[in-house]
Amino acid sequence: MRCVHKILAIIMSSEGTEPEAQEQNYQKYKSLKKYQEAVDCLSAAADECQQTSNVNLENLISNCDNCVGLVQQLADKEDDRLRKFALQQLLTSVGHSLGSLKAKKDQLNKGHEPYVKDATSISTDNAADKHKTQRKLIVEDTIIRKGSISFQDVAGLTEAKEILREAIIMPIQYPHLFTGGLKPWKRILLYGPPGTGKSRLAQAVSKEINSTFYCVSSADLISSWVGESEKIIKELFHHATQQEGRSVIFIDELDSICRSRSSSEEEHTRRVKTELLRQMEGADNMASVEKIFLLCATNRPWELDSAFLRRFQKRIYIHLPDREARKAILHLNTASSSAVFSAEDLDSFADNTEGFSGSDLSNLILSALYEPVREVQKATHWKETTDGKFTPCDESEPDSIKQSMRDIQPELVQPRQITIQDFLKALCTSQGTISQAELHKFTEFTQKFGHCG
């Protein structure tokens, strides 16, 4: 598009396009008017191309089409060789773009690429294959391999883990148990405040099973091209049904694409929701729906459309960690630091962190773990340990050595062991991020629709 603007700028700045010439020669005035109309069409098309979403393909094609017609008329009547060459170059450039846009439109409307004759003679078969390959690559990029997180690495949430074992793990490991009227759950929604472990639970599921696990976000499903998002969703579920055994699709931040429908929302948004609902119910292949388990997570369940809520057989509230879970989180996050805490220390930590989410606690613990490192940087006196390393000490201690950290070889610097006091100190600058008003909304939703995990 930039090269097109440059070509038009050259043409309009050439001799014979000044206002005086318009008055002297009506034909030149008409030509100048067509030049301006072509610029306006091209500018409108360029503005549309800058859109990151909701691109109006019809408007884009219309502007390019009008520009081609105007430029063709100008080229036919132009006698100046330089201008005629520039107009022909412009015609080739816009014609190429127009052909691509029409091919894209036909692909979205009919599912295949028509033959479009333009300067580059676009190959329709190759274009169709390219788009199909791109959708397949998008889906395959969401597949994650077994991670290192297991259910044992997720503190608390005992009931949620049990439900996920019943819904996903047991049907895969013991399929003979689920016969007759007993069928495994197909769709489960995890909801709760941010940082409570919803995504971590999903990662743990991927380690526990030997089937294909898709981890999807709204960014993976939404395309700026109208109609392409629905095809990506369809490709995701189709790809999952082609795998051996039962596949698991995890969609995080579901509220970003499944908010309540309204009369004011855009048509393409409504089509995306409709396609996802169709795939959840196995509209294309009822037999294939048995091969897919859908696990979704959201921080704002009350914003979900009621049609989506109804389709989840279990809606599990992933609440803030309770007292015992907070102690377990402390153990998990300090396991590699060789820190030892007494029962009183753990009670003190649990008492002072009520209302913290799992993410809040992780940040608090990380801040506390930094305390010995901060002391190392400021230390002025050191003592040598039995293994030949140096650790900070008080200047009153026997055999203390006055020096800074820079005077010691880096590999010999040894910070002190972390204590519960470091956590209490970190609490002075750390607060929970979940308000009581938010918790009240989750409680109300759970009473109406949910199941406490």
TrEMBL record:
Residues 184-322 form the AAA+ ATPase domain. It comes from the Eukaryota. Keywords: ATP-binding, Nucleotide-binding. GO terms for cellular component: cytoplasm; endosome. One of its GO terms (biological process) is vacuole organization. The keyword Cell cycle does not apply. PROSITE patterns: AAA. GO terms for molecular function: ATP binding; ATP hydrolysis activity. Belongs to the AAA ATPase family. This is AAA+ ATPase domain-containing protein. It comes from Strongylocentrotus purpuratus.
